[in-house]
Amino acid sequence: xxxxxxxxxxxxxxxxxxxxxxxxxxxxxxxxxxxxxxxxxxxxxxxxxxxxxxxxxxxxxxxxxxxxxxxxxxxxxxxxxxxxxxxxxxxxxxxxxxxxxxxxxxxxxxxxxxxxxxxxxxxxxxxxxxxxxxxxxxxxxxxxxxxxxxxxxxxxxxxxxxxxxxxxxxxxxxxxxxxxxxxxxxxxxxxxxxxxxxxxxxxxxxxxxxxxxxxxxxxxxxxxxxxxxxxxxxxxxxxxxxxxxxxxxxxxxxxxxxxxxxxxxxxxxxxxxxxxxxxxxxxxxxxxxxxxxxxxxxxxxxxxxxxxxxxxxxxxxxxxxxxxxxxxxxxxxxxxxxxxxxxxxxxxxxxxxxxxxxxxxxxxxxxxxxxxxxxxxxxxxxxxxxxxxxxxxxxxxxxxxxxxxxxxxxx
Length: 411
Known about the structure:
There is one protein chain. This protein is mainly α. The chain has a single domain, classed as ABC transporter involved in vitamin B12 uptake, BtuC (Orthogonal Bundle), CATH 1.10.3470. The chain contains 16 helices and 5 strands. The strands form 2 sheets. A 3-stranded mixed β-sheet has the order 1-3-2. A hairpin with a 2-residue loop joins strand 4 (207-210) and strand 5. The longest helix is centred in the first third of the chain and has 38 residues, at 6-43. The two termini are 38 Å apart.
């Protein structure tokens, strides 16, 4: 009969604690998503003029939806940086590839396909181009980005530290420039717009009949259906978080953590470095592609000037601020910085200038403020606001004295 050793019991106890912790956070995410949807769908329309003005000024639905895009991409980058310890400064490339994939197969851009090809799409009939349901586009773009992640990651596997950062930075700069200059394939600076309307369900009836009442369940969503789009974006974000958590607890996730802690020791213990690193690039890029599609649906367009290097830096700042390696901390960091960058700082500037009669352009100082926050974080809380347990223990470990080092060496 099998017996349980103390080590086995300790690992089982840690696993139970982690599972319980994740369940609490998942329940909190679900409750927050439901409350947010009900708030924008039913509470805001019934508010008075002052209430609607406050919501549209400080917490607009558009900014909330965009924050979910940042969450999806930040969770993807966290796999590369937080799990595997591979510094990636070109993650915006996958965001761009995902967005342009949506532009190619969710619009009239490919005029050569005439009559158009339709598959469960909410697009108007008799249009040229390829028109696929956005759920199918999500899968196609994510898989394409995963393949691109392997292609980009393969040449960089022998590089470390600053050299790896420089190469990924180069890829992040090259790919948006390709989209900008390849007019024949991307429409250049003019971009691709508009995209097809979103159909919530890939297949099935557009409505359910209950007696004489018809309840629409798959009506096309226009650009201003922000509440319904919030639900769809929240589902994609929940999927990204779920995949990230499940992989981390599995064999691949433990291999990533081993490489992050000590690559040489991991290789000596039998971890295949090349396959494991490529898997990190592929899974991270997969989520970046999903984020690109969601962003294209959010803005109903794709333009090359939106995929700048600053996006990669902001995503990295979200991970550092929230807690590198901790999915839930990264989610909080992404939501906070996305709101601060798009809404919080500009509105604070309007309020400040109105109160004190100044004319300070606060949004122009966004990266100065963000840089100052990161410097303070590195000085006083390097592990982030919601750190991973392993990272907190390493960074908060007391330094050993010279005598202890000598004793340890003699031992």
